[in-house]
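Quick question, first post here. What does this chain look like in 3D?
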Amino acid sequence: SRELSRALHADVHIERLGLSLLMRPHLSLHGVTCSVQKSYSLAIQGAYIYPSLQALLAGRLEPGLISLEAPELHVQLPRQQAADTTEASLQEKQKKAAVFIEAAIHKLPACELDISDATVGLAQPDGTAFVLNALDAELTAPAGKLSLSLTCASRVWKKLSVTVQYRPAAASGDEAPSDTSPAVRLALEARAIDIPASRDMLRAFAG
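> Answer (accepted):
Ran it through. Tokens below.
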């Protein structure tokens, strides 16, 4: 816990740590909590880390699957600064978004991430809150790419399903010039959505 706290610059506590060598070997962590002052707090009932069998056969110890059971993440958003009067072009916004996404992807572990029954809460300084619950997700990020499948519920929809596939921009000199921009595939499906409540939520959190 102390090493994790120093690495993450946060208060990390683990109630119980276990190692199973039967069937499929894995490391288990129970009662995990992590917090950074008033910025965010994370609590995980159970976290299971399975090694990559392919890496083990090659003599390396690498995670192949990380499974999180009933994690709860609560984020306190900072107070928004005054908007910049200079309006960026759509192309500039897309470029900044691509840089941010690619940087985030490279920080993700190359293994598969499986999340079940999660809760994510966002809170504004004025007390406005938005909570996603019953969130299940599967995420993989091989070689800088991203594949995400997610379902969740909230007070503004009964069920939301999201599928995202992201491929970074091709390096210069690649065969097809048309492949030099990032490729994103996004699919959304919402059930029993409350349109007025959704509009109010977007105004509160997106401005």
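Residues 90-107 form the longest helix (18 residues).
The radius of gyration is 20 Å.
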